Structures are given as C-alpha cells and as structure tokens.
Amino acid sequence: MNEELKNIWRAFFNWVMGNGPRPENEVIPPEPPPDLPFTQKPHDKYTRFHEATLKERYNQWLEIHGLHIFAILYTGLSVLTCIVIVSLLLATVAELPPFGHERNPANNEVIRRYVEHGGHETGAQNIVAGLILDYRAFDTFGESAVLFTAAVSVLMLLGASRRNKTDTHSLPSSNAMDAYSIHAPPMRHHTFRKDDVILRAVASLSIPVILMMGCVVVINGHLSPGGGFSGGAILSTALILCANAYGFERVHEFFNERTFIVSSSTALMIYALSKGYSFFTGANHIHSVIPKGTIGNILSGGLILPLNICVGLIVAGTLYGFYALFSEGDM
Amino acid sequence: MIVIEWLLLIFLIVCAVAVSISKNLLNSVIIFMSYSLVMAVIWVLLRSPDLAITEAAVGAGVTSVLFFLALRKIGQLGHKDDEKSE
C-alpha cells in the first residue's frame, strides 16, 4: 500500500515537474554539444601534452585559490588606499596656518569690510544672511536653481514610471497579492493606518510647533541665526511628519505636484528678477530704490527678507518632494 | 566647558567608527543621526549657530528620514518582523 502510494506520488511529482514518461513517437532532439570553457577543450592529438596540462593545472589552481587571492588583494589595496589618503590629509592639515591667527591669509580686508560695514551696507543684523543673500546672492540663487532642477528631474524620472503603473495601482487585487508575497516590495508603503494613535498624538502636538519654528527661522533670517535653507528644511520635516502620521492624502490637500511647481517657479522667478534689479541698481554707484530700513526691525535688510522666503519655499518643497517621490512615487 | 567639548569630540569619533562597524543598517542610520546631533552642539560651541540649525534640520532630520526610506526600499527595515511572522 505504502509503496503504491509512493509510486503514484512519484509519478504525479514527475508529471508536475515535466519529467513524465515520454510518448513512443516523440522525436528526441539531439543534445547540443556542451560549451566547454577555453581551458577545458577536449584533447587534440596535435597539442603537446605538457602544454595542455599546464593550462589545466593553472585553471584548477585559479579555481581553488582565485577567490582567496582576490580577497587578500582587495583588503590589502583598500587598507593601502585608506592609509595613503589619511596620511595625505594629515599632512595637509599640518601645513595649514594656525587657527585664529592674526596673519592668516583668510584674515584680509574682505573680512574687515564685511564685519565693519556689513550691517550698514546690507541692513541685516545677522551678518551671515547679509553675506549669502546680499554680497553673495548669486551663489544662493545658483544653489536654489540646482535644488529645483534636481527635484524637477526626479519628478520627471519617477513620474514617467508612475504613469505607466497607474492601472496596476488601481486594481483592488494588488494589495491582496502583496500580502502573500513577502519578499516583493509592497506597492504603497504609506497606507492610511488607523492604529497609529501614538504617532498621531505626537504629530498633532508637534507639527504646529515645527511649522511655527520654521516660519520664525525663515522670516527672522536677517535678524537671528538661520535663514531660508535651514528654515525650509525645518518646514519640510513638518510636512514629512504630517505625511507619515496622517497619510499622503492629507498633505495632497494643500501641497501637491502642481503647488510645488507653481510655488518653486514663482519663487525662483521672483528671486532672479528682484536680485537682478538690485544688482543693476545697487552697483556701480547708482542709487538703489530699495530701502534698507532700521537695523533690527523685521522689515529691514532690503531684499533679504523676500529672498529668504523664496529660498525657504523652494527648499521646503524640494525636500518634501524628494521624500514623497522616493517613498510612493507620487507627490 | 573644555571637558564637555572634549567629551563631545570623543563621542563624535566613536560614532564615526561605530557607523562603519555596525552590522545592522538601522543601527548605523541611528548612530549617524546622533553624530549629526552632537555635531550641531559642537557648531553652537564653535559660535556658528547658523550651521547648527542647518545641521540639526538637515543632518539629523531630513537625511536620516531619507536613509530610513532607502532602508525600507531595500527591505532592511522590517526584516526581523518578517522572520518572526514566518
């Protein structure tokens, strides 16, 4: 009985695996000759005996010891590279001028000019903001443009694949299939969960505070430490926390792809136009129309406040956009 | 104050070594996060609060979140839960 069952099971197994008994009239195709590697070609009469054995022995030796030798070489070379780079850097550090010394090359008339006349010329109490948004405003414009370009290219690249997959996303069975396939990545990571009570309580308490902090850092950029970039990063963390706690749908209500494109492009355009205007009017001893205001007030510092707001908008949108695009491919 | 500075610097070095030594990728990201946080405190001690704010927001906040996202994408975040459920 047991043997019969085993035989039936074996026949069934063979049938399932495709190894069942062949029908009588089937023509068996001749097996193609196996592709031998270069060193294991069949012995030819005319090859000299010792040459063949040398090749074979080399091949065997390589098969046995090759990985080991490669590992040793890899470790040795990486350690050597590390040592060379570390010693080069240490030698460079030893050559640097001493910290805070009076005669350092960085301590020249540019620094003196910035420190003595910076507040008067830019109208900013925070001299760093005056530097990066007045003296060096074109650098900051380039940074914002680079960030915006990166976000737009990510949007294009990931958006193209998203548009192709839209139909599979909308199928109701895709979620059910994901539950069974453990190793396949799930389609949507951030589903609307109702059980995250702790996360929601913390988020509802902390999101307004984070948003307020970000706005303060952006708006007070010319008075206190901070500015557009750091404030925008804080704002984007608030958006990311909101998306994690309440789902991306909640964020979509006030910030989606269209809002991001419109706000970032508008901010960049305002930045370019206003800064170009002030460069043409403020330089070359032409009188600038933009008032500097009293140092220490919110409305002071000329163009620094609107420029900070522009940079903050771009950075917040871009960093949140990166997170949203990479996590679910949508924004 | 100098003692605190030295402690923070030593902690920084320990963190930097531990990030590369740690086997678990999640632990690495968390250690990297603490590295950024300590670095922000050191920026404040070096009297550059601008950098401190940026480091705390970008280094400890956004970068770590993006790292967590990458870990989830490659399936390293919920690895232990999968093993338990199996």
Return residue spans of chain A where pLDDT drops below 50 for at least 5 consecutive residues: 167-192
Q: Please identify the structural class of chain A as seen in this structure.
A: mainly alpha
Order of helical and strand elements of chain B: HHHH
- What summary fits the major beta sheet of chain B? none
| Termini Cα gap of chain B | 52 Å
Write down the overall mean pLDDT of chain B: 85
Shape of chain B: flat
Principal-axis shape of chain A equals: extended
Q: What is the subunit organization of this protein?
A: heterodimer
Note the total helix count of chain B: 4
Tell me roughly what share of residues is in helical segments of chain B.
Answer: over 70%
Beta-strand portion of chain A reads under 5%
The Cα radius of gyration of chain A reads: 34 Å
* Record field, number of beta strands of chain B: 0
Mean pLDDT of chain A: 77
Please report the total strand number of chain A as a whole number: 0
Sheet/helix structural class of chain B: mainly alpha
Strand-residue proportion of chain B: under 5%
What characterizes the major β-sheet of chain A?
none
Distance between the termini of chain A: 64 Å
The radius of gyration of chain B is 15 Å
